Amino acid sequence: MILGLSYMYHDSAACLVSGGRVVAAAAEERFNRVKHTIEFPHHAVEFCLKQAGLRINDVEAVVFYEKPFQKFERILRTYISSYPRSYRSFRQFLPLWLKYKLFIPQKIRQELGYRGRICFADHHLAHAASAYFTSPFEEAAVITTDGTGEWTTLSCGTGIGPKLSLKKELRFPHSLGLLYSAVTAHLGFEVNNGEGKVMALAAYGEPAYEEEFRKIITRKSDGSFRLNMDYFSYHSDLVMTSPLFSGMFGPAREPGAPLTARDKNLAATLQKTVEEVLIDIARQWQKETGMRSLCLAGGVALNCVANHRILTNTDFQNIFIQPASGDDGGALGGALWTERVLRPEGPRVAMTDAFWGPAYSDAEVEGFLRERRIPYRRYDDRKKLYHDVARKIHENKIVGYFHGRMEFGPRSLGARSILANPANPETRDILNRKVKHREPFRPFAPAVLSERASDYFETSAPSPYMLLAAPVRPEMRDRIPAACHVDGLARLQTVSRSESPDFHALIQAFHEASGIPLLINTSFNDKGEPIVCSPLDAFLCFMNTEMDYLAMENCLLSRAPGGPE
C-alpha cells in the first residue's frame, strides 16, 4: 500500500493505492468543510486507512506530491531576481517556509506517527502519472499544464506500457495556468476558485482583445510560448497583474460589481488564446510522437471547452483527462508513480469510475434521520425510488441526490449531485438563484445515458467525468434548454450502465417519464462550500437552499411539512 498526500498550497487530499488500483481517495475539504483547504489531510488519511482496514505503519511508503526544496529554490531565486519589488511578498513567504514547508518528512511523521519510508514525486510527473497510469491506453502522449510545480508549468511526455517519461517542459514564470489566474483575479474572481467562472463568462463575450494579447503572449512555431512579464507581477508581488496590464485593459473589476462588456470580452479573448496555444502544443507533440491517444492532467485540464477543441482540432483520436486534475490529483499521481518506481513491472489498472470516497449504508442514513426525528419515506425497492425521484424532477422539482461512494475530484458525477429537469427553460435560473446562490451566467451540465449521447450532442467521445464541452445538436436545443449554454455547448457527462449502474437507472427512469435521456447534474453544495460528504452535510445543504427533495440512499425527504408527498 502506498499513501499519497497533497497539502500546503490548495486542495489537500490523500490517496491510497495498491497494485495499480486506487483503494480510496478523498479531498480534505470534504471533511473539514473549508473549500480548497491547505491543511494537512488528517481526515482524508483516516478515511483511506479505514477503507483499507489498515493502520498507518502498515503502509509501505508515504509520498508527497512535489519536491519542496526545488520549489523553495525557484521561489527564492525569483524573489532575489526581482528585489526590491518582491520585498513585501518575501516577508510573508520566508517565515512560512522556514517553519513548515521545508520540513515535510518531519511534519508527516509528527502528524501521522509514521515510521516508514517517505518519498517525494516531481509535481508534473505526479500529474502525468495520475492521467497515464489510470488511462485505458497502452501507449499515449501526455501533456500536463497548470500554474506551476517546482519550476515546470507545462510538460510533454509519453507513456508506453509500464513506462512514463517527461521529455519537454516550459518553466516558470511562463505559464498558461498563471495567465488564466491573473485574468481571473483582474475580473474580480478568486484565484484557484474562479477560473471556471471565467470560462463560463467567456461565452458571453467576443475575443475583442486579440491584438492586445499578442503583446503579452508570444507564440512560437514549435507550439511553445512566452509571456511578457512586464504585464504581470505574480512572480514578485502579492498581486497577479502589473499597472501596465491595467493600463491596457482598464482597472480590475471589484468583486461583486456588475459585469461589463469589457469583462466579457477579456474573458473571451483569454479563453480563445489558451485554447489556441493548447491546440498548437498538442499538434506539435502529436507530430513528434506519432501517438493517437492523449492523456491530460494539471489544473488547466479542467477547462472542458479547451479539452474538446484539442480533441476536434488535432490528430489525436482518443483523449483521457484525469478527473482530479488539480493538486488533489497530485496525491493520486504521487502514489501511482512511487509504486511504479518500487515495482517497475507491476500492473496498470485503468480507472472505470471516480467513486473512491466514503459511503454510508442505508442503516447509517436511517439512523441519522431517526436520531434527529427528521420525517422521511423509506424505499425497500430502489426501482420505485428511482421512479418517484424521476417523476418529481419531471414535475420541475429540484432533488438532492446522495448515493454510494463519494466522487474524487471537483465534479459531482451522480453520488453527491443536485438534479433537475433539462426541459424546463427556468431550471438554470432557479438553480443559480435559489439553490446554488451564484452568478446568473453559470451553466449546468447534462448527465446523459451514454448510449443516447450522440442523439443530443455533436460528439462520439465518451465524457464520463464532465471534462468535455460538446455542442448541443441544433434541433435539440429547444428540447433541453437548461443544458445548453449561450454558446451552444454543454459540459457533458456520459453515464454508462456498467460504470455507474444506479445513476444510469435513475436517468433511465427519467427518460421513461419524460422522453428525454438526460438530467441536469450539478454539484451538491451551496456557494462557497465544498461538495457534501456525509448525511449531515447533505441535510444541512438541503435545508439551507430551496431544493424540494433529498434522496439519501433508500430514504426520501421533502421540504413540505410532514415529509414526502
CATH homologous superfamily identity of the largest domain: Carbamoyltransferase, C-terminal domain
Principal-axis shape equals globular
Task: Name the beta content range.
Answer: 15-25%
Rg, Cα atoms, Å: 23 Å
Percent of residues in helical segments? 25-40%
Low-confidence stretches: none
Can you tell me the number of structural domains? 3
The count of DSSP E runs of length 2 or more, i.e. the number of strands, is: 21
Q: What is the level-2 CATH architecture name of the largest domain? A: Alpha-Beta Complex
Strand order, sheet with most strands: 13-21-20-14-15-19-16-18-17
Task: Characterise this structure.
By secondary structure, this protein is an alpha/beta fold. The chain folds into three domains: 1-65 and 67-120 and 332-351, 2-Layer Sandwich (Nucleotidyltransferase, domain 5), CATH 3.30.420; 176-321, Nucleotidyltransferase, domain 5; 362-558, Carbamoyltransferase, C-terminal domain (DHBP synthase, Alpha-Beta Complex). 37% of the residues lie in helices and 19% in strands. It is built from 19 helices and 21 strands. Strands 13-21-20-14-15-19-16-18-17 form a nine-stranded mixed β-sheet, sandwiched between helices. Strand 2 and strand 3 form a beta hairpin. The chain starts with a strand and ends in a 7-residue tail after the last strand. The relative contact order is 0.12.
